[in-house]
Amino acid sequence: MNGSSGTGRSWRRLPHRRPRLRGWGGVAAMAGACAVALTATVLPLLPCDAASQGAQPSQGPGLARAQQVSVDDSCAHPEASLRPSSASGDAVRRIQQRGYLAVGVDQNSYLWGYRDPETGQIVGFDIDLVKAIAKDVLGGDAKIVYRTIPTDQRITALQQHSVDMVVRTMSITCARIKQVAFSTAYFEVGQQLLVPKTGTSVTGFNDSLNAKPVCAASGSTAEALLESQSHGAQLLRVPNQLDCLVRLQLGQVDAVLTDNALAAGQAAQDPAVHLIGQPLTQETYGVAMNLGDTDLVRRVNKVLDDYRAGGANSPWMQSYNKWLAHNLPGVTGPPAPVYKD
Amino acid sequence: MTHTPTSGSTVSGPAWLPGPRRAAWAESVDRLRDAATTEPGRLRIIGAVLALLVLVFGAVTAWQISARSTAARDVATRSEPLSADAAEIYRSLADANTTAAGGFLVSGQEPAAVLRRYQNDVHTAAQLIANAAANSQGSADTQNQVTLLNEQLPVYTGLVETARANNRQGLPLGGAYLRYANDQMNGTLLPTAKKLYQVETGRLHDDYAAAESLPWAAWGLGVIALAGLVWAQRRTYLRTNRVFNPGMLAGTAAAGLALVWLVVGHTWARVDLGDSWDHGGKSLQVLNQARIGSLQARGNENLTLVARGAGAAYEDAYEKGMTTLDGPRGQKGAGGLLSEALSLADDSGGRTPVQQAVDGVAEWRSRHAVANGDDTNGDYDSALAYVIGGKDSSGKEITQTTGQSFDAVDKGLQQAVDHETGEFQQTAGDARDALTGLPEGAAVLAVLAAAGAVLGIGRRLSEYR
Questions:
Q1: If you placed Cys at B229, which of A222, A329, B244, B252 could pair as Cys (CB 3.0 to 4.6 Å)?
Q2: Is the ipTM of this complex over 0.85?
Q3: Which of 244-273 (A) contact B at CB < 8 A?
Q4: What is the pTM assigned to this prediction?
């Protein structure tokens, strides 16, 4: 409604939070740093890594060089997308004729896509990316319709065309690429456990979880992981990963499983919880679109190319520094794009 | 406890010994049989039986009517107020939840008015829950619901406070707490409050049934006693040719008066009770449901915006609530519960506020259509402005909001509830008054009638001396 006052408020908000996060910072920031470092370096060497051959997961300014991989049924590279192009096809024209971009986002993922209670606006790292895409497709003062959707409705919303794209901390997985199309990867994460700092007997993603209630968002990769390797944990499904933090604070669950990027957002809201162990998976976030909207996928990949370009001053890095650097430190640049064509 | 055979045979009573007890009652039967063969003896028996009949009639009347009088008093002073309280508990809880959800929609700090309304709602609910506990009078069903409400209300308010604290720090965790609190409200508190309302309303119906049930035993005994008195006088007339026996006549008059009082008084009370239900109780039930329906529609309207794009289920629930309240969309005039309330309102004092609510709902629905259209077309800011006020996406201050319409509806319904409660109390009080003095009066009249019968018979007896 009022852009200037909104910016003013969010400018005040960050310095205000900084001291608290520093206090919290010790353990959790290190855990976050370890997580990212591990994701970037150790995990590619592990056998579970799907992308170790073709993709170059280590990140850094100027290192975001494109890779091409061969695509076969084994799904070695789910994050491989279509080559970028700014040509307008059916999907792009549909959006331009309608006059606004309908995007599926979240209002609960702190620092990624969340409703700032002070301004009532949805903001975050994902939202910056949405604005860049909208600006490219629709021009300067693009109109964006945010539809906040539960985790397990993301694919349905795309298939029913109730949104043009989902920019909502959505991991690119082998199962999902059969249902929706993804852009190139724009962030690397891994599943990790979040537990209270004191008074817990959970030591990691192991048998210490036996017979303990563990929370995960319904339709998330964390839910899939717990279903395949439960370690005896009782899975509590909730609509949104932030609902897990409520259950954890109320003592209804002993641990939360989500990816370290979202967990960092949870830990930033509650200094009494922290991430433990190492990331259990290597995943990347992508912008999800309808499988048929290939021209839109290429258009978004082109936007992402521009978004990644510029080294330390790239829009990607600026957004990272604004939203994530405090709670998810140690990332030096975006992941390199991987293409399948 | 074992007995030797000899002592056992002594206890059971050997046949060759005369049984002393048998002799006692046999003797009195013989004496009665002897008495019945002589006229004075017969008169004594008739007198005793008549006196007994009339006294039993009086006692049964007093007992049955005081039970009905108690039930009639309970309708007015206990079960209806408790049923209304239970409805108010539900309304306060739903209003608190709706207010909390509405407060969440406001950017920045919640306005003081919102906070005050929430606090008033919680305060009212807590007070009425304590009141329901004090008046549960051993009803296990009521106690169970009250205990659950007592346990859950602090849990709910705790969650809302946590939501607020997080909101103030600019954390989206506040929204997650509010969703959880909303789940608790809709999953536990409101269903429990609804059950309490059903239990209390069940007790109201029980009291109505107890007060209105016909006192057949008293009626039957009254008719028998009167018939006995008439028969005894006819017998005297046939045997002595004396037309009037003053004592018996007075007794008959007293018994007859008691019977007429019984029939007229109780029928009167039944008519008043029927009126209190038709002109007050029934309206109150419909109005309470309408208030709850409008609250739920408002709550769902708010939640549609809280869910922000994922609120299709809430929008459906809003439309369903509105249809229950006011009939399907686009129809002419009032429908649903409001048209029922209009037809039940039997004077202008009852109709005017309901009509205000009907107008408010029509306005609400047309404003909601604008807000919902904006929301569907992605103009969230305008939709929000039409629902809670503020500036729309073009910067224009929206002053005619659905929130104002809702408040107008709620105010109209509140006034209608107050009016119908007054009518109810009036007629239910009349019903109680119709029975006033009847138990005591019937007892006194029965004693008089018995005395009259005994004196009348005694006069005849004296002629044999």
A1: B252
A2: no
A3: 245-246, 249, 269-270
A4: 0.80
